């Protein structure tokens, strides 16, 4: 079972043959409109496709028209405990609802939410994570309890004839996370949101997430992804993109760059940073190499589609390891950028 039911979240579709969609989440209360607007723009600029927002109170709910007007990304409402907030979010036009199992106790209130979501064609993500478990002592107990709870929630939605379902079973423990997602993928026809909860700050969080998600991505498990990091929101999106690129699941410019050594006589780091920024939203599977010296650079990066290597104020442009042009460093960089923008894969 490789393909999942197709679910539409605003203008983003997941499941079926659609690629994995990258999402992130506002870190501020949406009533802080200037901060929210800045974060929305920051995420859009790096290619975030789905935006989740926490709605802890009615003040937050009142910002939904503002968010919809200022975000190109579909809005997912993250709601805990308060059924009235969930129903108001649906009525005000959010594109998806994320509910954590067991946080809304009343079955009647749950039914109201589901029936309204069906009326408004709003998908529901069953957002199950380690925090949904209480008084769990062992790993086996955690696995068993999370499986039972997810099955229970799915059964409830099915009984209400609701099938616009997205699943997530995330945990901060790598082994539990891998097992649960493999099980959910094998068991249910619904799209799966993957990630590793509470991964940590930038470097440890990326490493832990990459290790934790590798077995899933190798098996093409997952329909949306979030790399949950403490810090700048843009890093979540960039980390997700580069992770998906590594497994051939995201069409984008892949950059190889050398760590530099004593032979290096040009500022590789600043040019790599420029190239990352200048090619960020180019959706072409192009492998580009940025090498520190023109002696070994083209040969060492012969597997790259195109690249440049420098020597002082001069640089060379090479393609498949063959030098094509020599000139001033900035001139070669501009030619490289033009070639990337016009590059076509044979």
Structure description:
The chain is of the alpha/beta class and 346 residues long. The protein folds into two domains: 7-246, TIM Barrel, CATH 3.20.20.20; 254-342, Sulfite Reductase Hemoprotein, domain 1. 41% of the residues lie in helices and 21% in strands. The protein contains twelve helices and 15 strands. The strands form three sheets. Strands 8-7-6-5-4-3-10-9 form an eight-stranded parallel β-sheet. Strands 11-12-13-14-15 form a five-stranded mixed β-sheet. The chain has a two-stranded antiparallel ribbon with strand order 1-2. The longest helix has 21 residues, at 139-159. The radius of gyration is 23 Å and the shape is elongated. It starts with 6 loop residues before the first strand and ends with a helix.
Descriptive key words:
346 residues; alpha/beta; TIM Barrel; Sulfite Reductase Hemoprotein, domain 1; 2 domains; 8-stranded parallel sheet; 5-stranded mixed sheet; 12 helices; elongated
Written as H for each helix and E for each strand, in order along the chain, the element string is EEEHEHHEHEHEHEHEHEHEHEHEEEH
Strand composition percent? 15-25%
Structural Rg: 23 Å
Helix segment count?
12
Poorly predicted residue ranges:
none
Shape: elongated
Question: Helical proportion?
Answer: 40-55%
Major sheet: arrangement of strands: 8-7-6-5-4-3-10-9
According to CATH, the homologous superfamily of the largest domain is Dihydropteroate synthase-like
Question: Taking all residues together, what is the mean pLDDT?
Answer: 91
**Number of domain modules:** 2
Backbone structural class:
alpha/beta
For the record, what CATH class of the largest domain applies? Alpha Beta
Annotation, overall tally of beta strands: 15
CATH topology of the largest domain: TIM Barrel
Architecture of the largest domain, according to CATH? Alpha-Beta Barrel
Give a quick account of the main beta sheet: strands, pairing sense, barrel closure: 8 strands, parallel
């Amino acid at each position: 079972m490789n393909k999942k039911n197709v679910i539409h979240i605003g203008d983003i579709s997941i499941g079926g043959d659609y690629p994995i969609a990258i999402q992130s989440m506002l870190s501020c209360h949406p009533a802080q409109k200037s901060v929210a607007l800045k974060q929305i723009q920051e995420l859009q600029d790096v290619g975030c496709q789905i935006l989740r927002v926490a709605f802890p109170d009615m003040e937050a709910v009142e910002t939904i028209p503002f968010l919809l007007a200022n975000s190109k990304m579909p809005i997912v409402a993250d709601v805990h405990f308060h059924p009235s907030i969930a129903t108001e979010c649906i009525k005000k036009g959010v594109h998806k609802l994320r509910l954590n199992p067991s946080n809304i106790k009343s079955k009647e209130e749950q039914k109201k939410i589901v029936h309204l979501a069906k009326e408004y064609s709003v998908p529901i993500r069953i957002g199950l994570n380690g925090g949904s478990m209480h008084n769990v002592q062992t790993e086996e107990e955690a696995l068993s309890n999370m499986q039972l709870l997810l099955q229970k929630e799915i059964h409830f939605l099915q009984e209400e004839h609701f099938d616009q379902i997205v699943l997530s079973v995330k945990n901060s423990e790598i082994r539990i996370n891998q097992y649960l997602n493999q099980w959910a993928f094998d068991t249910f026809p619904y799209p799966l949101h993957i990630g590793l909860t509470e991964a940590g700050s930038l470097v440890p969080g990326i490493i832990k997430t990459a290790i934790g998600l590798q077995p899933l991505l190798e098996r093409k498990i997952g329909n949306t992804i979030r790399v949950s990091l403490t810090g700048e929101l843009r890093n979540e999106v960039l980390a997700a993109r580069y992770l998906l690129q590594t497994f051939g699941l995201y069409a984008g410019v892949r950059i190889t760059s050398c760590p530099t050594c004593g032979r290096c006589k040009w500022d590789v780091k600043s040019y790599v940073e420029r190239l990352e920024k200048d090619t960020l939203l180019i959706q072409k599977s192009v492998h580009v190499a940025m090498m520190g010296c023109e002696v070994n650079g083209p040969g060492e990066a012969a597997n790259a589609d195109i690249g440049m290597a420098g020597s002082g104020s001069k640089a060379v442009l090479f393609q498949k390891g063959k030098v094509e042009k020599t000139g001033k460093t900035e001139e070669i960089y501009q030619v490289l950028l033009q070639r990337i923008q016009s590059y076509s894969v044979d």
